[in-house]
Design a protein that fits this description.
- By secondary structure, this protein is of the alpha/beta class.
- The protein has one domain: 3-Layer(aba) Sandwich (Rossmann fold), CATH 3.40.50.720.
- The protein is about 45% helix and about 15% strand.
- A seven-stranded parallel beta sheet has the order 3-2-1-4-5-6-7, with helices on both faces.
- α5 links the parallel β5 and β6.
């Protein structure tokens, strides 16, 4: 039976690259995103037909997350792989960021993956599936006043906390922590610095699939990736 994957924030960047890689391997894939236009453009470019589902919604909204999970299981009857990828960063530091924007980032980056884990665990216990949480090198190395870094430290904690909860049930949990990646993530931060080395979204997707494709009984727990030349 074909494996079923659900990816949050899957219309662009790492999420979209991972969805394409999973589709290429023969998985059925569902992706969520806030922007209906971007989701539609991704679906058209993927050309995956009935192998792909898309859901417009907010990863930090419990009802949206529950609805997406329910529709995936109702449509395909199972859920094997869950990738918590939705997240964003803000320019500036916590001294000058708008409090409501700060709230939205914390909810998306921390509550979002927590809700996804909560809703999908019953299905993953049944399938002996895998969870991948996309963190960041920012969750390993702080920079001054970086609230995004705080949210990613929390995401890293969530991965280990979840692993402790479900490893006895045969569910794998992997934290993938990339350094600088050339994706639309940088759009609201004035663009990626031209002099910075960067990885591609496809390279991060390969690492995610490495974790997902481990044989039964094996669990890769933490992958940290940087482009050569990125010191921090």
């Amino acid at each position: 039976m074909e494996s079923v994957a659900l990816i949050t924030g899957g219309s662009t960047g790492i999420g979209a690259a991972t969805a394409r890689a999973l589709l290429k391997q023969g998985h059925r894939v569902a992706v969520t995103g806030r922007d209906a236009g971007r989701l539609a453009a991704f679906a058209a470019s993927a050309g995956a037909g009935e192998q792909l589902l898309t859901f417009t919604g907010d990863a930090s909204d419990a009802s949206h997350v529950a609805s997406a999970v329910r529709q995936v299981v109702d449509t395909w009857g199972r859920l094997d792989t869950v990738i918590a990828n939705a997240g964003f960063s803000l320019p500036g530091t916590l001294e000058d960021q708008d409090p409501e924007a700060m709230r939205a980032m914390v909810l998306t980056n921390v509550l979002g993956p927590s809700l996804l884990v909560r809703e999908t665990l019953p299905h993953l216990r049944e399938s002996k599936g895998r969870i991948v949480i996309v963190g960041s090198v920012a969750g390993v190395r702080h920079t001054p006043g970086n609230l995004y870094s705080v949210t990613k430290w929390a995401a890293h904690a969530l991965a280990e906390n979840t692993r402790l909860l479900v490893t006895k049930d045969g569910v794998g949990v992997t934290l993938v922590a990339p350094g600088i990646v050339d994706t639309p993530f940088w759009d609201n931060r004035g663009g990626r610095p031209d002099t910075s080395p960067a990885m591609t979204a496809e390279q991060i997707a390969e690492a995610i699939l490495f974790a997902v494709n481990q044989p039964e009984g094996m669990d890769v727990n933490h992958i940290t990736m940087r482009p050569l030349g990125q010191a921090n």
